[in-house]
Specification:
With 410 residues, the chain is an alpha+beta fold. Helices cover 34% and strands 40% of the residues. The radius of gyration is 30 Å and the shape is elongated.
């Protein structure tokens, strides 16, 4: 019996050694992926993928991965050669179309990228990756209407696609050349002031090659007095990631509005659907008030979360304002419910004239909700906000706001 076992071992041992020395195509494919993703050694990964294809030359997934490796290694000629070979074979895999179109998009061959994407969508009409890539290609060529349509189609397939939701909001700012809008804000105080406030704003927004520019005129009736203000804002793009906010305002009716206001912020669209902002706001009534702001936002499925702070230093102490906002998107980037909660006064609010008498250093709590919706190119908004403010030391009052808005895109 022992002799039989020994003979069997001697017969099978060379086969075992051979199996260890000659891994399968799947094993080489797995090793190539590990080498690429964990070690970032694309040259070694390419060699492993080629070795796997010698064993299984018709293994489509390995060929697509090899083309991706060439793309990441900036060997565009070799990457295209692999994709063209797959094209001749009539490959219809979704990953093939995504990888091939991505190569062309990253190398500014946008017309060819769209051609490949459209062919892919014929075979995979519900491909979220292809619709998202199509939106990005059109956005890169300033074809904003086509980009908006592509991202809309994606969100109809999956409204909870986080990256698509974030990108839809970006596209929305570019989807029309012109916008005109009007807003009305009504404020009622139970103690702090005897008269209600009424504020009307009229704006015109123009999209340019550098970014959007907004001209706004405001009329206010506060403390039973009338006043006006003019504002100019711009959002110049610096790159695919960064853009600026630059704003200024002027009014002769100091007390109802600041005489001057300025602001600058650097904004960033970050990976994983994050966004961030840092900057300053300056208000001048009879003295300068400097406020420094920072915010961070995150898209997650149908939601957008944002936390913003304003910090106002002076010679004695530092005042803080914090606001948390949550939006729930229902359809497009213009249809959403919003809830807001916070403390303190911000310079963006219609109450910013209260900053002059330093009531911002006292305690303020605010809670509000809003609903925005679109009908074709008509945008409507309605919102309400409740404030509980310590307007004198240890004396609090309530304020109730209602805001209505309408914007027409063309």
């Amino acid at each position: 019996m022992k002799r039989c076992q020994s003979l069997l071992f001697l017969l099978l041992f060379p086969l075992a050694i051979s199996a260890q020395q000659n891994p399968s195509a799947d094993e080489l494919f797995l090793k190539a992926r590990t080498t690429a993703f964990e070690q970032k050694d694309y040259n070694a990964s390419i060699s492993l993928a080629k070795e796997a294809l010698k064993i299984s030359p018709d293994y489509t997934d390995i060929s697509i991965f090899l083309a991706r490796l060439y793309t990441w290694n900036k060997d565009i000629v070799s990457a295209r050669a692999v994709f063209e070979d797959l094209q001749k074979k009539g490959i219809k895999d979704e990953d093939y179309f995504v990888a091939y179109a991505s190569l062309e998009y990253w190398n500014d061959q946008n017309a060819n990228a769209i051609k490949i994407i459209d062919e892919g969508l014929v075979h995979h009409p519900s491909s979220e990756a292809l619709w998202l890539l199509k939106a990005k290609v059109y956005f890169a060529t300033d074809s904003y209407a086509e980009a908006e349509q592509a991202i809309t189609n994606l969100l109809l397939i999956n409204p909870k696609n986080t990256e698509a939701r974030a990108f839809a909001v970006r596209i929305n700012d570019f989807s029309s050349k012109n916008e005109v809008g009007i807003t009305y804000n009504y404020s009622h105080f139970d103690k702090q002031f005897d008269d209600d406030w009424h504020i009307i704003g009229v704006s015109y927004k123009r999209m340019t090659s550098l970014g959007s520019v907004i001209l706004r005129g405001n009329y206010a009736n506060k403390f039973a007095q009338n006043g006006t203000q003019i504002e100019l804002e711009a959002y110049p793009r610096l790159s695919k990631t960064f853009y600026l906010y630059v704003g200024a305002g002027y009014s002769e009716d100091v007390g109802l509005f600041p005489k001057y206001r300025t602001g600058v912020s650097l904004n960033a669209n970050l990976p994983h659907s994050f966004e961030a902002e840092i900057g300053y706001r300056q208000l001048y009534f009879t003295n300068n008030i400097w406020l420094y702001t920072a915010s961070v936002g995150k898209y997650y499925k149908n939601f957008w979360f944002n936390l913003r702070t304003y910090i106002t230093p002076d010679s004695k102490n530092i005042a803080h304002s914090y606001t948390a906002t949550v939006r729930y998107y229902t359809k497009s980037s213009q249809d959403y419910f919003a809830v807001q909660i916070g403390t303190g006064i911000s310079p963006e609010e219609n109450r910013n004239n209260l900053l002059e008498n330093e009531t911002f250093k006292l305690k303020t709590f605010k809670l509000g909700a809003a609903y925005n919706f679109a009908v074709y190119r008509n945008l409507f908004s309605v919102g309400t906000m409740y404030y509980n403010q310590e307007y004198l030391p240890n004396v609090k009052g309530n304020q109730f706001d209602i805001t209505l808005g309408y914007t027409r895109k063309f």
